[in-house]
Design a protein that fits this description.
Blueprint: H1 16-31, H2 38-49, H3 51-62, H4 74-90, E1 94-98, E2 102-105, E3 108-111, E4 115-120, E5 128-134, E6 153-155, E7 158-160, H5 168-183, E8 191-197, H6 207-214, E9 224-227, E10 239-244, E11 246-255, H7 264-275, H8 296-303, H9 310-313, H10 326-334, E12 338-341, E13 345-346, E14 356-365, H11 371-388, E15 394-403, E16 406-407, H12 413-426, E17 431-435, H13 440-448, E18 453-455, E19 471-473, H14 474-499
Parallel strand pairs: 5-8, 5-9, 9-18, 10-17
Antiparallel strand pairs: 1-4, 2-3, 4-8, 6-7, 7-19, 10-16, 11-14, 11-15, 12-14, 13-14
Helix pairs in contact: 2-5, 2-14, 3-5, 5-14, 6-13, 12-14
């Protein structure tokens, strides 16, 4: 018995072994156990009993070709709106549709598809969650798909189709969660306000102006904003997103002037050698001055991230990054500024105009870096470079698109509610992650509403959201609906706990 000190444990005593090993194991095990409320259990059982119906509902949504960038799909976009309105009526949600301006498609001036604002109000004493959804999908290149993108298809326990993981899949998960509450005759734990747009893949055109104009009347009383976008870091570990990089997308053009001796492609290379070095460091003066220093606590947080296999991507990394560890590499993706430079593009037209070359590049910025300031720094750097290097050919710089960086404090109640919900459904703590690409809709909410924002992805890293062979696994589709319901209960409970 001497080899098992825990056998002698009494109420008033603990051995060293028991406390340091068994106690820690018990504590860790308990941390992944959060009681399923009786009401939530009914929801989970309803989801499991209605999988075929949920699948067919998504099938009906996916077959609608809701592409907003071509005239021939305009009726399909209208059909998608009708589909959503029918669901809102079936769920007994009140809703309004709002015109938000005009845009140009194939030379024609058209109304931007209306924004739908839907309400589920149960009590003024309950918290109110604003849910962001979108209906549009990018036009798929059907030659690159292994199945028909408009027909829901099962392949290896995955559901393939346009919008399954980005847009339509998350939307149906929210609708199914509400349906589950109604069918189980359960009181809804929060108030909901849906904001549904159709220009997500077109930089959320008109969305910012709408939010700014109506924030005082349509968006008062909101406690937090939730978007079920994005994807997990790996295949198994659920994630919660608390930040995203800002992006400045540029096009630089160089046009040959008559009488100049230098080659325009050489000029392009020379200019970029002054912007970024061989190890990816941005050389623009003052560019890095406002980057927040890394704290020891932040390093520990990055070390705790699971389900990220560096070996999966090591060979695809630039040579100077291949020796980096997980922490340094993830920080380079998410919380350090960087630059991505595309290849030089020459004219491929029939006349083969060699007098102009262009190059696209992305500047990734992080919190405390401001879009307008960074743009000014780059233009001043370019102006000085052209002067110092005596470049005579005509150089123009165009900012195509920009997105502000976004960052939340993930120690706040809505993140704790989401993490507790993840533990309830997946028996795992969530990875707290950031994204290395811009998230326009989120930054719009962040700018005008100034409310906490939670991005809760429902699919794993192989889902290809918005890309070729987009899919969501059967597990993630159904468990995602359960996760939404669990989050609603966890978030509503925090109000009661806070009052005590």
């Amino acid at each position: 018995m001497a080899g098992y000190p825990h056998c002698y444990r009494t109420v008033r005593s603990q051995t060293k072994t028991t406390n340091s090993v068994y106690g820690e194991f018990f504590e860790a095990a308990q941390a992944l156990k959060i009681k399923i409320q009786p009401e939530l259990l009914k929801i989970l059982q309803y989801v499991d009993s209605n999988r075929n119906k949920f699948y067919n509902d998504l099938k009906d949504a996916v077959k609608i070709k809701s592409i907003t960038t071509e005239l021939k799909y305009l009726e399909e976009v209208k059909k998608m709106h009708d589909f959503v309105e029918n669901w809102l009526l079936k769920l007994e949600l009140k809703y309004e549709c709002f015109n938000i301006g005009y845009y140009e498609v194939e030379g024609k001036r058209l109304k931007i598809p209306t924004i739908i604002l839907a309400f589920l109000k149960t009590s003024p004493d309950k918290k109110t969650i604003c849910v962001y959804l979108h209906l549009d999908v990018p036009k798929p290149d059907e030659k690159k798909w292994d199945s028909d993108p408009w027909t829901l298809t099962n392949i290896d326990k995955k559901i393939y189709g346009c919008g399954t993981s980005c847009g339509k899949g998350p939307m149906m998960s929210w609708f199914h969660a509400i349906e589950a509450f109604k069918k189980c005759n359960l009181e809804f734990p929060v108030n909901l306000r849906f904001v549904i747009e159709s220009m997500h893949h077109e930089h959320s055109l008109g969305f910012a102006e709408f939010i700014e104009a109506r924030m005082q009347d349509l968006f008062t009383g909101i406690d937090c904003v939730v978007a079920c976008d994005g994807e997990w870091l790996g295949e198994k570990q659920p994630c919660i997103i608390y930040g995203a990089a800002g992006i400045l997308h540029y096009e630089m053009r160089i046009e040959k002037k008559e009488g100049t001796k230098t080659d325009i492609k050489e000029d392009m290379e020379t200019i970029f050698n002054t912007i970024v070095d061989a190890e990816g460091n941005v050389l623009i003066k003052y560019f890095n001055d406002y980057v927040i220093p890394v704290s020891p606590d932040e390093e520990l947080m990055y070390e705790s991230i699971k389900d990220f296999d560096l070996e999966d991507i090591r060979d695809s990394l630039p040579p100077y990054k291949r020796s980096w560890d997980k922490v340094k590499l993830l920080m380079s993706f998410w919380r350090m500024p960087s630059i991505y430079v595309d290849e030089i593009q020459e004219c491929i037209c029939d006349k083969k105009d060699t007098s102009i070359v262009k190059r696209h590049f992305l500047l990734k910025i992080v919190p405390k870096q401001i879009v307008s300031t960074v743009d000014s720094q780059l233009r001043k750097h370019l102006q000085n470079t052209l002067k110092d290097l005596s470049i005579e050919n005509k150089v123009t710089l165009k900012l195509i698109n920009s997105v502000r960086p976004w960052l939340e404090d993930f120690r706040t109640p809505h993140f704790k509610a989401a993490n507790d919900a993840v533990i309830q459904i997946y028996k795992e703590k969530a990875n707290m992650i950031r994204e290395d690409s811009g998230r326009e809709s989120v930054t719009i909410f962040n700018t005008f509403l100034e409310k906490p924002i939670l991005v809760l992805p429902l699919c794993n890293k192989s889902a290809n959201p918005g890309e070729d062979n987009e899919n969501i696994s059967f597990r993630d589709y159904y468990e995602g609906t359960k996760l939404i319901a669990a989050f609603l209960y966890q978030y509503s409970d925090m109000k009661v706990k806070n009052q005590n």
